Amino acid sequence: MGLLDSIFIDPEKVAIKIEQSDENAIRMWKAYSSTLAEKASIINQLVDGSHGSQGSFEKLYLEKLKSLLETGLADVQSEEASETKVIAGLDQEAHSKKMKRLKRLEDCVGYAKTQHKHAHSLLAEIHKILLTEIKLAGEMLEHPGKFSKLMPALKSQLELEQEAARQIASIGTERFHRIFLDLVKGEHMISQLDAKEKKLVRRMREGMAGIFANEITDGITSQWAITLFNSIEDEIHKGIFNGIYEQHPNLDFEYVNRPEFEALARKTINDLKRNAVSEKMVNAFVSLFREWYNHGRD
Length: 298
Description:
The longest helix is centred in the middle third of the chain and has 28 residues, at 115-142. This protein is globular. It has helices spanning 5-8, 22-33, 36-48, 56-68, 83-88, 92-109, 115-142, 147-171, 173-184, 195-212, 220-241, 251-256, 259-272, 279-296. The protein is mostly helical. It is 70% helix and 0% strand. The protein folds into 2 domains: 5-184, no CATH class; 195-296, no CATH class. 30% of the residues are buried. The chain is built from 14 helices and no strands.
């Protein structure tokens, strides 16, 4: 099991967590980081066809790429990436959407108060990218006839990986290493939805989409969303006045992704509730509201 697998794979499916010294964990991260330039060179040469004749050279480059991917951060055996998911990465519209969401992370959580959440989100992206790259390289080595079909997906993964690496660099090396160790060792836990909350999100998503599209204007959930949305600006102005926030163009994104927003959502729901509302329902609602606010208004 890879080091990032120990953070992001469902704990119920993992018998033990990886035990690593601080030095080994940082060494593994640095080893991964040191592969990025060479990986980009190999993938670009494969895309451009500048490696020379076909066949044996493709195999040579893919084998080298596969060796670079063996960093100890992700193990494709731990969470198998299906070919269906891999092929989905060929869609340029899907790739553009993923890139836009990844870049938006910086606006949403790239602040001191939410820096652990920012790093956690970036590491989650890198984990998914590595699993997909490993799967793609293996597929192309095993089935050379799929090379032209799968190569654009590999290029897309590289572009996402480079954006994630850029954002990690913006955090600062020493600061990121401390956050990385906190996350790997479980000393800073990022709140994530449990299985029941994820099920609630799936059930609520369609209705919430109707609310955000102004297609549904009645009902208690609609009241929650409208009241909460209208409260955001007032809460930000209060925070600026009290010296809690510094004004900047993306302050609304910062606020919606801070813990204070969760408290506002909880208060809004409790003030408007007709019956008791479970904490899991509140968490699911906040997750969907943030998803829309961060990515759905464009």
